[in-house]
């Protein structure tokens, strides 16, 4: 069964991993907080696994989910 | 230094389903009952018919006569007769009587009846009840009771000797001296009522006895009852004769118009019970007048008299509006007036307490009240301003402790402050005896915020104390633990307490020295340690005299009393004495002394809820335009941050100026600097400061963002260090920025930067999130 993704960002080749020297690609990642998990698709380095969380995402959606979980 | 092992742990899961009651139900009710916010206004309590006179006056004052009339007709089926004949006991209970003349409630009622309009569009056709009622006779009671029962949708039959409705009504009001226009007004209403009159019929005893077979309830006028059933002894509270099974009264209930109206209400309620074959004494709720415990502050109310009539028959519409405008809408908001937190949430303590109590009891699901629980500054002002001493701080503090104990309290709102406390008691902690002393008689404890905001002042104060007091003055730079106390982290608080006690004992050579506190909150917290003698530096300075060189401000100043000094009149007085000695002229504000509001730092509001904290600061500053003199460094800092000239009294005593308020990184830097400088210069201890082996610069925007987002320079350094070691970073081609990150404690920090060369960074932005990110 297709797992639901809470958020998807495609880097479209505009981000480069400095360690591996290759572009980040859209990859599967997961946010974990207080024992709750949220599958997402974010820019990921296909080699070293660096996952990029953009500023807007961190301050927007991520922050609001955090606040909601903190009140659970 | 505090144990490195101590960690501030994030709770593991949101799926922990534990609950401990924060208060017993009785304790809760006892607390709630102190708040009289919901108590009825004086006029409302005095009305046996339960007219909401306060809402009525409010509508009238706004010239909303139709609305006012609706309220009045709710209690009066024959409004003109009632308004004309009511003795208006409410007028004597009106709060304004204490100052001048009470509101002329009855005159306003008359005007409302005269000028108000009933809604013309008919509402839904209301369903008639199945049970039928018959009323025998005439008189005020029977008239009013008929009105009540028609309103309740009973099919009503009236049997009386008067031939028609007009005669029947006139007979009822005959002795009450009701003016003709009022009679006409209500006669029109009566004629529109859905009822059957069997006129010109003189009821006899047998007919009344037999009526029970045809009707579900039988009502008889007191006059008829007295004539036909001399043995009757109706219960006056129920308006019911148990033996005869009739709703009636004795002659006295025909007293005045108001008495009859009240009796009619009681009788109507009995009818409700009887038609359901219930005992009329069943479930009657509260009837008649009530007691009120309301408190209403009239200090700012100008005494005034009733508006005189200029027409023979009462107020004109405009006059009634003006008279209604004298009504002060009695209510209690003593606590709310002084507290930005209560204003923010627009809730009075009674309801807030209940909601917080329920929130704590939520085992699974959302805790909607966490924000309010963490936004109270625990300052204790409400306990002083409330006429009944309501203690909202206790409620919020207990709720925090409770939720910490059940693992329901999020760490996020308090983590920064708690880590800051650990910083104060680890890296920045200093505890030394005065050079030349093995043990000291005194120890100066300036408090963490003093070192963070005004390190030079701390240094000057300690230098002064240690040069003038006999017996040696040790110095302890650290946090008293108030931060964990406020956060509800009681276990951590105990740890800090033990730690401080241990360190104090070392300084005194076995027993703790006398503590000279530089901060009222530290003073309060330290006084809670067993066997500790604690004084305020302000007291010591008054004992030994102020040092040379102090200089007050040359403008009149306002003193902002610290919430930590609430109830400590000696401290409040001492500050004013010192200010006076420094030549300052003090203007007192309404909320000073024990009534002082919190600056927004207390209770960790500044960390947990910046918005409310800001409103608290604003409220403090709105009291005066003068520069503020404080004796708590947190207050000084928050006021200066809002752009107000504010000085700690010690800055003026020692002629230091802490200047512009520091950002969060500077606050840490200041504490480290103070400690290291003192170690070097006073105790000749060499301090090796190891900074990063690369240069970091920040754009002004980055610094501003970091302060807003509570990101320290040390966090940025850690991220860059990690990036240098691991090589992990990315390049965003569009912006040309490098982006690196590291997980530090319970959060992931991200830094966006450019690099001039291998060892020079320019930070453009930084952000963080608490969620952990993993690949899958
Ligand atoms: S001051 Fe506040 S807490 Fe006290 S009775 Fe009035 S509304 Fe309630
Ligand atoms: S001032 Fe208004 S609300 Fe207060 S008692 Fe008088 S009529 Fe009632
Ligand atoms: S902030 Fe202070 S005055 Fe306001 S509710 Fe809390 S303790 Fe009471
Ligand atoms: Zn890589």
Walk me through the topology:
The complex is a heterodimer of chains A (72) and B (776).
Chain A: E1 15-17, E2 22-23, E3 25-33, E4 36-44, H1 55-70
Antiparallel strand pairs in A: 1-2, 3-4
Chain B: H1 25-32, H2 42-46, H3 53-61, H4 65-75, H5 79-85, H6 89-93, H7 105-115, E1 133-136, H8 140-151, E2 156-159, H9 165-173, H10 180-192, E3 195-198, H11 205-214, E4 217-220, H12 222-228, E5 240-241, E6 246-247, H13 257-275, H14 317-325, H15 334-338, H16 340-345, H17 349-361, H18 370-375, H19 381-385, H20 392-405, H21 412-425, E7 430-432, E8 442-445, H22 448-453, H23 455-468, E9 473-477, H24 482-487, H25 490-508, E10 514-517, H26 520-527, E11 534-536, H27 537-544, E12 558-560, H28 569-581, H29 605-608, H30 610-621, E13 628-630, H31 633-641, E14 646-648, H32 649-654, H33 664-681, E15 695-698, H34 700-708, H35 713-726, E16 730-732, E17 737-744, E18 747-757, E19 760-769, E20 772-775
Helix pairs in contact in B: 3-4, 3-14, 4-7, 5-7, 5-10, 7-14, 8-9, 8-13, 9-10, 17-20, 27-28
Bound molecules: iron/sulfur cluster (3 copies) and zinc ion.
Characterise this structure.
The complex is a heterodimer of chains A (72) and B (776). Chain A has one helix at 55-70; strands at residues 15-17, 22-23, 25-33, 36-44. With 72 residues, chain A is of the alpha+beta class. Chain A has one domain (16-70). The longest helix of chain A is centred in the last third of the chain and has 16 residues, at 55-70. The termini of chain A are far apart. Chain B is α/β, with parallel strands linked by helices and 776 residues long. Chain B contains 35 helices and 20 strands. At the A-B interface, strand 1, strand 3, strand 4 and helix 1 of A face strand 16, strand 17, strand 18, strand 19 and strand 20 of B. Strand 1 (15-17) of chain A pairs antiparallel with strand 16 (730-732) of chain B, so a sheet runs across the interface. Bound molecules: iron/sulfur cluster (3 copies) and zinc ion. One iron/sulfur cluster (SF4) is lined by residues 41-43, 53-54, 57, 94-96, 102-103, 327-330 of chain B.
